[in-house]
Amino acid sequence: MVLLVWVELYVEYDPKMLLPFLRSSQHYTLEKAYEVCATKYLLREQVFILGRMGNSKQALAVIINELGDIEEAVEFVTMQHDDDLWEELIHQCLNKPEMVGILLEHTVGNLDPLYIVNMVPKGLEIPRLRDRLVKIITDYRTETSLRHGCNDILKADCVNLLVKYYNEAKRAVCLSNEDDARPKRDAMVVFFCCHAYHTTCLMDSTETNTSGKKETGATSEELYEYEEEDADDNGSEAGDPQMRFCSQKFSGRRLGFAHLVLAHIDGHDSFFLSRLIIRLNVVVPQLMATYILYILISIVNGVANTVLPVIKSASSAPNTMLISGISLDDNELRHGRKNHDDQGRQEPSNRFFFILLRTNVRSFQLQIRGYLTFPQKYIVNFKYWGGANTSSPIFVYPGDEAGSIEGIAIGAGFMIHLASRFKSLLLFIEHRYYGDSMPFGYKNIAGQNASTLGYLSSTQALADYAQLIIDLKRNLSAENCPVIAIGGSYGGMLASWFRLKYPHITLGALASSAPILYFDDLTPQNAYHETSESCYSTIRQSWFEIDRVAEKPNGLMNLSSIFNSCMPLYSSEQLKWFLGFVYVYSAQNDNGSSVRHICDAIDGAPQGSDILGKVARGINASFFGGHSCNDIFEIKPNNGSAWFWQTCTEMVMPIGHGENDTMFQASPFDMEEYTRTCLDLFAVSPRPHWITTEFGGHDIKSVLGKFASNIIFSNGLRDPWSAGGVLYNISDTIVAVYTNEGSHCMDINTPSTNDPNWLVEQRDNEMNIIGGWIEQHNAELARKLDTLRAMKYSPEFSVQWLQFMVMVLLISFTGTVSGWFNIPRLSPTRGTIIENPDLQSFAPVSDDLRTFYYPQTLDHFNYQPQSYATFQQRYVMNFKHWGGANGSAPILAYLGAEALIDNDLAIIGFLNDNAIHFNATLVYIEVNNRKLFQLYHEEAFKNASTMGYFTSAQAIEDYAEIIMHIKKKLRAFYSPVIVIGGSYGRMLASWLRLKYPHVALGALASSAPILYFNKITPSGAYVSVITKDFREASETCYQTIRSSWSIIDKIASRSNGLSTLSSKFKTCKTLQDSSELKNELENMYAEAAQYNHPPRYPVNMICGAIDGTNEKKDILGKIFAGVAAYRGNRSCYINQPTNVSEADVAWSWQICSEMVMPIGIGKNTMFQADPFDLNSYTKECMRSYGVPPRPHWVTSHYGGHDIKLILQIFGSNIIFSNGLRDPYSRGGVLENISDSILAVHTVEGSHCLDILREKESDPEWLVKQREMEVKIIKERIAHYHADLKASLIKQ
Fold first, then answer.
1. Between β-strands 849-857 and 891-895, what pairing exists: parallel, antiparallel or unpaired?
2. Start-end of H helices in 1200-1259
3. Residues 977-999: what's their mean pLDDT?
4. What is the pLDDT of residues 873-917, one digit of tens each?
5. Which of 372, 878, 1122, 1289 is the most exposed place for a label (fewest CB within 10 A)?
6. Is the pLDDT of residue 840 over 60?
7. What is d(CA 89, CA 72) in angstroms, rounded to the nearest whole number?
8. Catalytic residue among 84, 755, 1222, 1250
9. Region 493-514 average pLDDT
10. DSSP state of 723
11. 483 to each of 510, 705, 916, 1206, 1211, how far by Cα in Å?
């Protein structure tokens, strides 16, 4: 408030100094300052404040419309680093000719001038346009000349570096266990050209020339001239291996990489060899350094025979870059004792290898900028690993806010302990924006504003970990090795969330001191109260006494003297903050003595000591005391901290304390003040409910009890954060392990000989639980492999499936052309091309429907300024049959697919037909492709910048927020939600249940091809089912269709052939290429098979027309008869004019970004061969949208591989329903995964048939399918109500 007065004073008396003041200070309220500046019409000050508030577009409008200074506008936009702002600048200048001209002059180096020229309205007269264009061309030539000059300099530098590399490659490093300058015969020599030899081997090599004749033998002393090692290596202890540089002086034949001599070396030698890699990286190309590092890893682990396969897999993964290998001495301790073998020889030291992975900046947003990568550091310890062949586990530490990952790797002694017991590999991953894993290259750039910090979030970090683990397991051929995530504090929260969100990647999690339920005050009251009542009372009284003394003359000087402050105190708040920090830190990290030392000092103060004197003695006895003076500091929120950013966006823990329940002064949490602080620091508002929406928390026992598994929540009850931890068992496999005397993350710290018995027992308990997980996993894996082997040799399997599988494999692996780019739409009715209203009879929309709009957040997973934009998302509700919130009546939620919900309201009948059976209210939610249209209108679908927000992950979060909003508005907190979708919507329904079990009790996923990704299902499976459908309908029809393609090509190759085909098929316009006709026929056959619904059965309709045609008609005449029968009487049939809908464009975008289903055509089908080709697919997507597809993203984020092994112990209450005549059914779940994840399918069914409206003509098998689905849902809801009743009675 005082600083706001300064603003007013500057405005009134010295306006010129106001702007420097605003820039130098951060302690004024932005909104109030803006109001003052707006009142006085201070424009540049308004621009600055608007920029600080994140209102960049409004600031830009002030510059252009009020100041009229285009040069300042260009400078402002350049400083913002925001592509969208450039677009805004151009649009605002288009109607101002002079500004357009100036803009052309000042955008060289920022924008392509041609882009601006193309956007200028026709007829707009721009002053001095000719001169300006000449200047642009001149500047371009100058820039080109500079680039050529730079390239020449770069080439010269490259040549010089290559010469330097060649000279360095002739040198070698000699390793020896002797202090002598001359190595013995057992020494090892490693050359910078990637060759390594024992001295004896090298001498033998030099004694033999290429003709096999002996040369004069050379001694080891004669072979080398030595140079002293760098000064940083001179500090090695006596007896350590010595490393010297030596000059090559032999002319033996060069050995290839495959002939490299591999020898076993002990831990000390591995230390010096790994240090060598640091030197090699200076002069050796990346791939060479990679080879050497993998050789060292293999030598150290005694698995030299696996070197070449590992190197082959590593070199095939271009996104992995190894930079240096370092071995850190960290002798293993088992309950405080060094681990020795029977002979007393010390175990080799742990080997840690520092590695960088190129990680995507954005994982949930598919704009062009989301494809940027940054180097993410991770550390691997291979010492104890039993190898991929034994399915030995991998223990992962997900990095947290602690910063650099090296310190965590060194101090994580409990993980070393686990590794030695379970023969595991250790992996430590650094969190983005902490340590060296910095997007945009540098910390000052990454943290400069909300636009760059916006990519820092827990969900982005989890996605980083998921992708890194998948890549590492693939490179090590360790796909069957279980992964256990272990973390502490924020890292513990990440570990538990990682298990919940990525059960297909991690088998279990140990979450130590993870306050995932923190909604109460951080009150370390108990530790002090239990230690000493008088200590507790003294501390509680001290706050008033500090304020009383501070108010006196020279009060702060007296307080500085009492507490022996190194620097004079500037306020009493500074002292109180410091004291509070000391108490909290001591309680949080109380190892049994921290709190007691403080209280003993307070209680042991000399008789007559006043309150502040006693407290001062306590501080001197704490971890922060014992010095000549006390450094009394105060940490204030600042915009240079990544953790402050996270607490200002998503990690909103309402920490405060009241008047009577703690030993602190009353300081309740104030959300309004918290928000103001965050706006001042980062110009963003916190999202206080986001964590519980994304990860859950409310009713955690009822939600996770029958859904998740394999999580240990460990806590020490002396830790203040334990108040927000899980302190009771949720199920048999989600358990709480806590100790009354424990403190923060104590169980995962390095074991010590001084550890109390209760801590040793806690760790043993945790290890036994983890061992049970691994044992169960290995048993299930063994059963799976036995089943596969049994199926391989089963006669029954061969008879029933061999012919079909051979056909699918032939379809998948033959041919050389580009692939079927137009992946068929997944909507519940009809397909992408054909418009035939007769295929589906629409029932009238009910009058009971009510339409609502929810202000939905544009971007849930990032926190840039534009992420906070909102749009009105439509949902429709029907309350007719609802039993009400008091009766906990269920909610049936339909998740819109890739189209708008208008048609779905008419044709999707499952909800309305069965609402009366469940006493349910109905809600239909529209998918988020409409939000783009509403936000950007016709611009929404033009490029990746606007379409990047249209992803499945964003859509699922949209649904979750709307469902929780509805339950809150209706006060229906205990009403279970069943989500239902249509095809793509059904995929979203199953994924929503897996990712958000706290939102949806269950899901009905019909015709959901969740396994048609990343080679889980053969690419030709879709087309094989189409072929099977037509062949079963009619063999002659199948043969006719199969023969037609070559005839079409033959006629098209003739003169006037395309005109002949156009006439024969009654095209709406003359064909330009035969592919137009063939594509439409392919789509027609695919659509007929996919939507082969009774009673008309389109496949039979087409084949009936083909077979029923006069036998004298040629093959193409028969084909046309099938087309006419399917499409009805029309004036023309092929290449009809079509209106491209939002849904068509949105689906095209999705298959180019995340929904990459590799549908292709091989031989032995009724189509021409056209297998899926990812390279051609990528080129087409790049041409259309400027972004490459992410073919592995769906399986990385949602899973799919080994789905039965994963979900039989994780997940529940999902029905996967399919009709086996649906081509997409081959990518669906066709067998039960567990007792509550069920597969319901019918042999005669087709796409999404079970969720359409009931009709009297429905066949009996369809009626029974629906009845079975209703029965399963009723049972799940009944179980939920029984559990709810028992829970409420217990409470």
1. unpaired
2. 1203-1207
3. 90
4. 999 999 999 999 999 999 999 998 777 788 888 889 999 999 999
5. 1289
6. no
7. 11
8. 1222
9. 95
10. G
11. 11, 22, 46, 12, 18
pLDDT value of residue 705: 86
Is 106 annotated in the active site?
no
Contacts of 1279 (CB under 8 A, 6+ apart): none
Task: Output the DSSP codes for 947-1016.
Answer: HTT--HHHHHHHHHHHHHHHHHHTT-TT--EEEEESTHHHHHHHHHHHH-TTT-SEEEEES--TT-STTS
983, 990, 1024, 1153: the active-site residue:
983
State the residue for tokens 């991998």: 394
**Cα–Cα dist 201/678, whole Å:** 66
**Residue 274 main-chain phi, psi, to 5 deg:** -70, -35
Residue 876 CB-density burial (10 A; 0-12 exposed, 13-18 middle, 19+ buried): buried
Higher pLDDT, residue 557 or 140: 557
pLDDT score of 1237: 95
The encoded tokens of residue 370 equal 């989301």
Question: Is the pLDDT at 921 greater than 60, yes or no?
Answer: yes
Whole-angstrom distance, CA of residue 1284 vs CA of residue 1287: 5
Active-site position among 268, 744, 1241, 1247: 1247
Q: What is the mean pLDDT of residues 167-182?
A: 61
Return left, alpha or beta for 691; rule: phi > 0 is left, psi -120 to 50 is alpha, else beta: alpha
Residues 6+ apart with CB under 8 A from 211: none
| pLDDT-wise least confident of 294-308, 678-692, 981-995 | 294-308
Band of the pLDDT at 1185, cuts 50, 70, 90? Answer: confident
Per residue in 233-290, pLDDT (tens digit) is 434 443 443 334 443 333 333 332 222 222 223 333 333 333 333 333 333 333 344 4
**Listed ranges 195-204, 311-320, 530-539, 1193-1202; the one with the highest mean pLDDT:** 1193-1202
* Distance from the Cα of residue 488 to its chain's centroid: 20
Would residue 743 show up in a list of annotated catalytic residues for this protein?
no
Average pLDDT value over all residues in the chain: 78
Query: For residue 1203, which phi and psi values (nearest 5 degrees)?
Result: -65, -35
DSSP of 1084-1141: HHHHHHHT--TTT-HHHHHHHHHHHS-TTS-HHHHHHHHHHHHH-S-S--BS---PPP
CA dihedral 75, 77, 79, 82 (to 10 degrees): -160
With H, G, I as helix, E, B as strand and everything else as coil, classify residue 651: coil
Q: Is the dihedral of CA 1251, 1252, 1256, 1258 positive or negative?
A: negative
Per the annotation, the verdict on 983 as an active-site residue is: yes
Q: Provide the β-strand partners of residue 1006.
A: 1217
Q: Would the pTM of this model clear 0.90, i.e. be above it? A: no
DSSP string, 790-856: HHHH-HHHHHHHHHHHHHHHHHHH---S----SPPP--SSS-SS---GGGSPPPPPPTTEEEEEEEE
Output the six-digit token pair for 584: 């909290």
Distance CA 654, CA 697 (A): 15
Give the pLDDT confidence score for residue 929 in this predicted structure. 52
Amino acid at 533: E
**C-alpha span between 1096 and 846 (Å, rounded):** 26
Digit-coded pLDDT (tens) for 16-27: 788 888 877 766
Tokens 């450039």 belong to 86
Contact predicate 197/203, CB 8 Å: no
| C-alpha 910 chain-centroid distance | 34
CA angle 805, 1166, 1043 (to 5 degrees): 145
Tell me how far apart the alpha carbons of residues 1144 and 655 are, in angstroms, rounded to a whole number: 48
> HEC profile for 286-355?
HHHHHHHHHHHHHHHCCCHHHHHHHHHHHHCCCCEEEEEEECCCCCCEECCEECECCCCCECCCCCEEEE
Contacts of residue 996, defined as CB under 8 A and 6 or more positions apart, other chains included, come to 694, 696, 956, 960
